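Q: what sequence does this backbone want?
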């Protein structure tokens, strides 16, 4: 397959597990889709950069996007292999309500970290806010949810 001058390379998915990224890459290559993994060496050398870099990126040509989605849809959610968080109250898997992924973690919220009233009081008293809002965060669609 000849590569055209205007073929655009896009990030198909981000992964926080090197092995899962390679499993998906191999599945796509077995189906004839050229792809590669970016930022693997950076994150393998220093895993603390994982959040800053945004994970390991699987890159594909934009023209192959629909075909990649169809291949992985037939396989099911590959992020189930990565990690599944269990809700302590219901003892069931936590699923993102926006994209349906199980690639979620509970921790400090990425949006609206501090309530506006706490921010104002902290600013007036010149102290660092002691309370940070906790929420579930999806690493696929980057949304926070309760």
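A:
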């Amino acid at each position: 397959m000849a590569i055209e001058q205007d073929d655009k390379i896009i990030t198909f998915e981000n992964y926080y597990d090197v092995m899962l990224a390679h499993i998906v890459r191999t599945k796509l290559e077995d189906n004839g889709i050229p792809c590669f993994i970016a930022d693997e060496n950076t994150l393998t050398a220093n895993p603390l950069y994982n959040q800053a870099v945004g994970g390991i990126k699987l890159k594909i040509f934009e023209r192959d996007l629909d075909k990649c989605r169809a291949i992985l849809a037939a396989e099911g959610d590959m992020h189930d292999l990565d990690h599944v968080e269990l809700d302590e109250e219901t003892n069931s898997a936590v699923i993102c309500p926006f994209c349906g992924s199980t690639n979620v973690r509970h921790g400090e919220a990425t949006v609206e970290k501090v309530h506006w009233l706490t921010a104002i009081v902290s600013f007036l008293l010149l102290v660092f806010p002691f309370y940070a809002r906790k929420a579930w965060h999806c690493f696929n669609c980057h949304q926070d949810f309760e």
